[in-house]
Amino acid sequence: MVLPSYRIVNLAQAVASAGLIIVAIAYFQNHLGLEPCYLCMTQRVFVIAVGVICGIAVLHNPAPKGQRIYAGLATITALLGSYFSGKQLWLQSLPEDQVPACGIPVDYLFDSFSVAEAISMLLRGDGNCAEVQWQLLGLSMPGWVMVTFVGFAAVGIVQFLRKA
């Protein structure tokens, strides 16, 4: 089986990442009016990070050793993103009496706290993260983002392991 070139695969991942962010902002946030919670914002950062890593790999077009480095970085980033998707899925599965209290809006968070404190709060999530605002085929938004991260990680592993 002939696989597409490293550049084509990285370009596909970068475009997919950009597409996901465009859909998240244009459709879910602006059209449907769904406001992203702390963990949603964190997951968006990791989707963007995978896209940026893959985009840089496309532009750089490194030798095989460099290709493995980019593939490893993209895989690790996708796995970290999947951790936060899993965390949000866990919050959504909690009984209502065990859901943490809702936090303050993200805009206020960065205005009122240091960047380190604000990021720490974003990474922890809050009660807003437990609310299921949208579902498709029985999976909530973080479930689909988890599927995406697993896909990104699988492609990254294939890219890492393939022969030059």
Structure description:
- Helices cover 71% and strands 2% of the residues.
- By secondary structure, the chain is an all-alpha fold.
- It has a single domain, classed as DsbB-like (Bromodomain-like, Up-down Bundle), CATH 1.20.1550.
- A hairpin with a 2-residue loop joins strand 1 and strand 2.
- Helix 2 runs antiparallel to helix 3, helix 3 packs antiparallel against helix 6 and helix 4 packs antiparallel against helix 5.
- The radius of gyration is 17 Å and the shape is elongated.
- The mean pLDDT is 85.
Show the helix and strand layout.
Layout: H1 6-31, H2 38-60, H3 64-93, H4 106-112, H5 115-124, E1 135-136, E2 139-140, H6 141-161
Antiparallel strand pairs: 1-2
Helix pairs in contact: 1-2, 2-3, 2-5, 2-6, 3-6, 4-5
- The CATH topology turns out to be Bromodomain-like
Approximate shape: elongated
CATH architectural type: Up-down Bundle
* Distance from first to last alpha carbon: 14 Å
Q: Round the Cα radius of gyration to an integer and report it.
A: 17 Å
Number of domains: 1
**Helix/sheet category:** mainly alpha
Main sheet characteristics: 2 strands, antiparallel
In what order do the strands lie side by side in the largest sheet?
A: 1-2
> Strand content of the residues, in percent?
under 5%
Order of helices and strands: HHHHHEEH
